[in-house]
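Morning!

This is the sequence you dropped in the shared folder:
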Amino acid sequence: RPRTGEEVWFISGIDPKGRPCAKRLTIAKADKVRAGLGVWVLICLLLVLPLCALLWLPLPWWMGAGGLLLVSSITYVMYAHDKQRAMSKGWRVPESSLHLGELLGGWPGALLAQRGLRHKCSKPGYQVVFWAIVLLYQIAAVDVILNQRLSRAVMQFLNR
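The structure's back. Tokens below.
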């Protein structure tokens, strides 16, 4: 039973007499609802290289950090919607759509959603793709900072 002051999650429903009622009630733990300090530190560390690369490129703000913030926010909302749909057994957001949001630059928002909402963080196959996308962003950022030396070396190797 929930205690006074505890946050609960539930799905609203109708009882046999036609009255509104709560179904599938769960008590929300504080550590499951909020992203901890460690997640924020991890995101900040992972954003260092991409943000440096964005500053290196001659892009307007809305395509750089502003675009990253917008896409991350949209991706977070997609995760939250999928989590809500998962709890209500509704139609889910396809994993490919979530990964597309991450690939378009929304991986920081996805990481926040995974840790803060406890969604998709225990699926190993999903996590492999997610962390591959994060790694791809880190490599691309290093390549931009190094004036595309990595991509030129790969292209020369492939043209042999």
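Headline: The beta strands are 8-14, 20-27.

More detail when I'm at my desk.
O.
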